[in-house]
Amino acid sequence: MKRLINLQPSRLSAMMLALLPFVLVFFAYVATSNARLEANPNDKLLPAMTSFGEAMERMALTPSKRSGELLFWRDSASSLRRLATGVGVSAVLGLVIGVTLGALPLLAAGLSPFVASLSLIPPMAILPILFIVFGLGELSKVVLIVFGIAPVIARDIQGRVREIPRQLIVKAQTLGANTWVVILRVVLPLALPRLIDAVRLTLGSAWLFLIAAEAIAATDGLGYRIFLVRRYLAMDVILPYVLWITLLAYAMDRGLRLLGRRLFPWQAVSA
Amino acid sequence: MSGHTALIEARNVWKTYGDQVVLERLDLSIAEGEFCAVVGASGCGKTTFLRMLLGEEPPDRGQILFDGTPLHMEPDAGRSIVFQRYSVFPHLTVLGNVLLGLELRQSPLLGRLFGGARRYARGKALEMLAQVGLDHAQHRYPSELSGGMQQRLALAQSLIVQPRLLLLDEPFGALDPGIRADMHKLVAALWREHRLTVLMITHDLKEGFALGTRLFVFDKVRVDPQAPGAYGSRVTYDLPLKRPEDRALSAAVPALAMA
């Protein structure tokens, strides 16, 4: 028998092992839910699978009585639009700030501590300010996401740029490049793969800020809906929504990873 | 100024880091077309000297002249360099790496060439790649190349801008002996063909003798055992070498065998 530290799962067993916790949680849920519903058929805490089905049919397939819209899809579209805008703006801002500060020591000396301080402000603490300044509409939600993740991305990119071997920067200059061209042809392309990673890592926070903002002031959105139906203890809506958000987040992470591999083949090879 | 033109002239150059004297009273001059090898124990300041020639570090005292005028204290297109590692750009293909030299210089706004200019540059780059034997690998990325191929690429990339001075910083230090021998042949051929002026730092004395037309030894003249940093290095031997390999000289200077 080999030592535990040397045991490697095969492909198949790795897949089975990965599925196992999901299956266990599922069955544990069904068992507990059944037991509770047997004791009290009106229990709302752990609805049966059929109730989930009914709830989602109501939300996703039946037009709402009040507005005639399919609420689930409207919520998804609104949330994804806010998230995409926020993350997109953050990525661009983070990249520009990070690359500039990383490549130009003079600017970094002036702005680095400032950006570092900004990134330490808890974004939720300034949400009221955002509501006051930008109103309760879309803008304040997007700004919250940007404020929450852009500084993190910027600092990450700045760190990556600092890691670029000095030799490459010198080399580019000996090939006749000016500052701008060094940044454009050397620093920026070397920093881009890290941008994908930084966005992947900050997506979790982005979702957090999005749902928080929607919970406090919105008229649609996945976070808004969850907090709205909480009043009726509607676990049959909340749980599928949470599952859907998780699925979306997973798909985005996967998609970004694939995109990174596709766009930067030179990196995948070295790994 | 002296009548004959020296490409590089160092006059009474000093460099200290804190209370550590690295170079003291360093004098040397290199004429156009020479292949100078610089050897010395580690910490003798040969890399510091190279960084000065690159313009990365100014001398504390003294003066370095490049073609008769004070050296520009910033890396620029007159001096090209091949480092031991990290000389090629990982995000560009082999061809892209060589093209880069032409693109960076000719296009100060975008760093890229288009249309006819690009086709012409591409032709030149491929020619250069053929000279170092990499034309078959033009679409590969550096991470897919062996160490020797990466250094060939670094040479091609440096030479395409036709530098006045080619600096080599232990360029073959990380390579296997067999590959190193191949690289020596390649460098010697390129030196002749492009009529280059080369300054090569190496810790391999044999390599210095095999390639150089001139060999500089950096060493300390004075040593204070109580304060190892009190005195710096300078050129202790300046040997003109006959090419090809003049091994007899190596025997004539037994002290060098220790370097």
Can you describe what's shown?
The complex is a heterodimer of chains A (271) and B (259). Chain A is built from eleven helices and no strands. By secondary structure, chain A is mostly helical. Chain A has one domain: MetI-like (MetI-like fold). The model of chain A has no long low-confidence stretch (mean pLDDT 93). Chain B is of the alpha/beta class and 259 residues long. Chain B has two domains: 173 residues, Rossmann fold, CATH 3.40.50; 73 residues, no CATH class. Helix content of chain B is 32%, strand content 25%. Chain B has a six-stranded mixed sheet with strand order 6-7-8-3-9-10, with helices on both faces. In chain B, a hairpin with a 2-residue loop joins strand 4 and strand 5. In chain B, helix 4 packs parallel to helix 5. The longest helix of chain B is centred in the last third of the chain and has 18 residues. At the A-B interface, helix 7, helix 8 and helix 11 of A face strand 6 and helix 2 of B.
Report a brief summary of the structure.
The complex is a heterodimer of chains A (271) and B (259). Chain A is built from eleven helices and no strands.
Tell me the name of the CATH homologous superfamily of the largest domain in chain B: P-loop containing nucleotide triphosphate hydrolases
Structural class of chain B: alpha/beta
The number of distinct structural domains of chain A comes to 1
Low-confidence stretches of chain B: 245-259
Secondary structure layout:
The complex is a heterodimer of chains A (271) and B (259).
Chain A (H helix, E strand, L loop, with lengths): L10 H29 L9 H13 L9 H33 L1 H16 L6 H8 L3 H26 L2 H9 L4 H38 L5 H8 L5 H29 L1 H6 L1
Helix pairs in contact in A: 2-10, 3-4, 3-6, 3-8, 3-9, 4-6, 5-6, 6-8, 7-8, 8-9, 8-10, 9-10
Chain B lengths: L5 E12 L2 E12 L3 E5 L6 H9 L6 E6 L2 E2 L8 E4 L11 H13 L8 H17 L15 H13 L5 E5 L7 H18 L3 E4 L3 H7 L2 E7 L12 E8 L6 H6 L7
Parallel strand pairs in B: 3-8, 3-9, 6-7, 7-8
Antiparallel strand pairs in B: 1-2, 1-4, 4-5, 9-10
